[in-house]
Amino acid sequence: MEHLLLDIQKYSIHNGEGIRTTIFFKGCPLKCKWCHNPESQSYRAEIMYNKEKCVSCMRCLMKCPQKGIVEKDGFYPVPRDKCDACATCVDFCIYGAREKAGRLYSVDEVIKEIEKDKMFYEQSNGGVTLSGGEVMTQDINFILQILKRCDRMGYNVNIDTCGYSSFERFEKILPYIDTFLYDIKHIDPDKHRLLTGKDNVLILDNLKKLNDKNGKIHIRIPVIEGVNSDDENINGIADFIKDMNITMVSLLPYHAIGQGKYDRIDMEYEGTDFSAPGEERMLELKNIFERKNIPVKIGG
Predict the structure, then answer these.
(1) How do residues 15-55 score in pLDDT, each as one tens digit?
(2) CA nearest to 131, candidates 67, 35, 204, 210
(3) Do the bridges between strand 20-25 and strand 127-131 make them parallel or antiparallel, or are there none, so unpaired?
């Protein structure tokens, strides 16, 4: 059994406690305007193009089996509508201007990479995190095989999820998960749809069900000035979760680290007007949760 993954990241410190190995799955049902990994949105492999490395040698154009690459302003970007990600252009680009986003992995290959870092898990109380894209919309049997083997080896496992999936899938993996890193983007369903392409009804319903099943939940909220940083939204989120068994809320100030990737994958970045709230405002938002006795911190 093989499945398409975006990356396996070693020595990760932002997806749970300790040093972790993070498995990034490819494909997500949401299209967040601020997404810092746009190459993770599609459920198929894609070719990324870095024009800073391109010398316009035209080898890609000549070798492309689809004959879809054309010159544009002296460069040769990825034609998403014609590209089947065969990676022939990647193989013939000697300057490294092209790379393939997405590769098939077997369960054995994933476990082999995980086991390489077991010493770090033991020393740092770390473990494995399955992330995305969106894990919960992937092949559940592939995921279960990884989880069961991690469980037999005693590894701590987290799931990083946007929550947009059938709850039946959550129930299947629940016995093997130590912590769910659960995103909440906005409490209002209509605004959530504008920001991500989907409303939040399923997401919030799954969160309630997960709490009722005694899942260990760490809420993460990307905070964007003028988008979801208002008192009404933050109070709404706090009120929604205040009676749940939430281990922590992380307020994550917006960043534009992934903006440069959009040109590389021929996508338009819609967050150019976004910014992070100031330090004083972040502390005010933190206080909203503290007043409701909800454990909270700024940052991951």
Answers:
(1) 889 999 999 999 999 999 999 999 999 999 999 999 999 99
(2) 35
(3) parallel
User: Beta strand 98-101 with 46-49: parallel, antiparallel or unpaired?
Assistant: antiparallel
44-80 b/e (C-beta count within 10 Å ≥ 16 → b): ebbbbbbeeebeeeebbbeebeeeebeeeeeebbbbe
pLDDT value of residue 68: 82
Distances from the Cα of 107 to the Cα of 4, 69, 94, 155, 239, angstroms: 11, 34, 31, 16, 40
**Nearest alpha-carbon partner for 161 in 174, 148, 142, 152:** 174
Name the nearest CA neighbour of 151 among 130, 169, 172, 175.
175
Helix, coil or strand: residue 283: helix
Residue 78 pLDDT > 80: no
Question: Which residues are bridge partners to 251 per DSSP?
Answer: 221, 298
Contact 9, 178 (CB under 8 A): no
Between the two ends of the chain, the Cα-to-Cα distance in Å is 33
Answer whether 0.85 is exceeded by the pTM.
Answer: yes
Using CA atoms, how far residue 38 sits from 48, 66, 178, 250, in Å, is 11, 24, 28, 22
Q: Quick one: what percent of the chain has pLDDT higher than 70?
A: 100
Tokens coding 54: 């391109």
Strand, helix or coil at 144?
helix
